[in-house]
Amino acid sequence: MNRKQAGHDPSRLRDCDWEAFMTVMDSFESLQREIDADVKVVQLARQRRDTFKAALNTAPDVEVVWGSGSLARSTQLQPVHDVDLVVEFDADEHPEWGQDGDSAEEAIERCRDLVNDLLSAKNGTHARLVRQVNTAERNRAAKCFIDPPDADDAFTVDVMPALKRPDGILIPFKSERRWTLADPKYLINQVAERQREWAQFRPLVRMLKHWSRQHTADTGRVKSLVMEVLALDCLHEGNRSEALRRFFVEASTHSLEIEDPAGLSGLIQLDLDVAGLRRALEDSAVAASAAVRAVANNDHAAATQHWQDVFGEAFPLVLPLGGGSGSGPRPIHDSPQG
Q1: Could you read off the pLDDT of 23-72 as tens digits, one per residue?
Q2: Which of left, alpha, beta for 153 (phi over 0: left; psi -120 to 50: alpha)?
Q3: Residue 336, preceding bond cis, omega within 30 degrees?
Q4: Selection from 242, 237, 245 nearest residue 197 by Cα
Q5: Are 320 and 330 in contact (CB under 8 A)?
C-alpha cells in the first residue's frame, strides 16, 4: 500500500503536517539529494573532460587519455570542481622517462606545454578553454584552471603523465625525482563491480565521504579515497540504515592503515590522524546503533536526531508525533525503511 492509498497524500498536507509525517527514509532521501552532484554540473564536467581527451589524443607522442578520480568512479560530491585525467605517453618517444632524476618533472612540463598549445583560452588550437596551467607546486600532474584561479571552487583539470606497464602505469613523483607504479583502473573496476551487485553502493559511498567532511575538526583532513577504500572493505549490502550502522561498527575496529587497493602504492594518506578517525567512527557507530533501535521502537524523531549526530545538519529532523519538541514512539505508515 502506498501513502495515497493509505490516505496520506503529501500534496494535501500543510508543511507542518508533512514534516510530522516524514520518516527516517525521507530524511535519508533529502540528505542524498543535498550531497549528490547536480546532474547538469556533472554533465558539464564530463564535457570538459571529453574536450581535454579529444585535444590531448591528437598529440603525436600520446597513446591514450582516460579519466580517473571520483568522476570516473561516479562517487563525486557536490560541488564538482575538478576532473582527473591520465595521459599515457609513447615510451619510445620518451626513452628517458620512467627513470630516476629530472624525467618526472619533464613529463609534467610536457603536459603543461600540450595543454597550453591545444587548449589555452588565448590561442588554443583545439579549443580555447584553459586560463592557466600550474606545475610549480604540483607533484604528479599539471593543474589546469578553467575558472580564474582565485575563484571559489575554481574548476580545474589535473593532467597526469604516465607510462603503460603490464601491471599498471608508471606515474611521476616530482618531489622525490622518481616514478612510482600505480593502477587507478583497479579501484574504478572494483567500485563498478560493487555497484552492479548493489545499486546503493555508490550513493552510500558519497554519503560516507560527506560524513568525513563533517568530522574534520576532530580528525583532520581525511582523503576521500580513504573513505572509498574503507567502504569497499566495510560497507555491505542491506537496507540503508542497517548498512550504514554495520559500516561504522566494522570500520571502527578495522585497520585504518588504508593502503592502495591495487597493492602497489602503499598507504593512501601518510598524514592521516588514525586515532582521531577511529574515535569519530566509534562515536558514529554508537549514534547509528541508537538510530536503528529508535526506528525499531517506531520513534523516527529520535532516530533522526541520532542520524543528525552522524551526518550533520544536512540530515533533516522528523518532528515527534504531535509536532512537539519531545520524542516518543510514533506510528509507521507503511513506509519501508532504508
Answers
A1: 899 999 999 999 998 999 999 999 999 999 999 999 999 999 999 999 99
A2: left
A3: no
A4: 237
A5: yes
Q: Of 316, 334, 336, 317, which Cα lies nearest the Cα of 33?
A: 316
Residues whose CB is less than 8 angstroms from the CB of residue 190 and which lie 6 or more positions away in sequence, other chains included: 232, 261
167-202 burial, b at 16+ Cβ within 10 Å, e below that, comes to: ebbbbbebeeeebbebbbeebbebbeebbeeeebbb
133-166: pLDDT as tens digits: 999 888 999 999 999 988 888 899 999 999 999 9
Whether the full predicted model's pTM is greater than 0.70, yes or no, is: yes
Query: HEC profile for 132-158?
Result: EEECCCCCCCEEEECCCCCCCCCCEEE
Cell numbers at 273, concatenated: 590522524
Q: What are the cell numbers at 171?
A: 606515474
Here the cell at position 318 is 522528523
Strand ranges, E, within 174-295: 178-182
In 178-233, the DSSP E strands lie at: 178-182
User: What is the tens place of the pLDDT at every residue in 156-212?
Assistant: 999 999 999 999 999 999 999 999 999 999 999 999 999 999 999 999 999 999 999
Q: How far is CA 41 from the centre of its chain?
A: 15
Length of the chain: 338
Identify which of 124, 100, 244, 236 has the alpha carbon closest to the alpha carbon of residue 179. Answer: 100
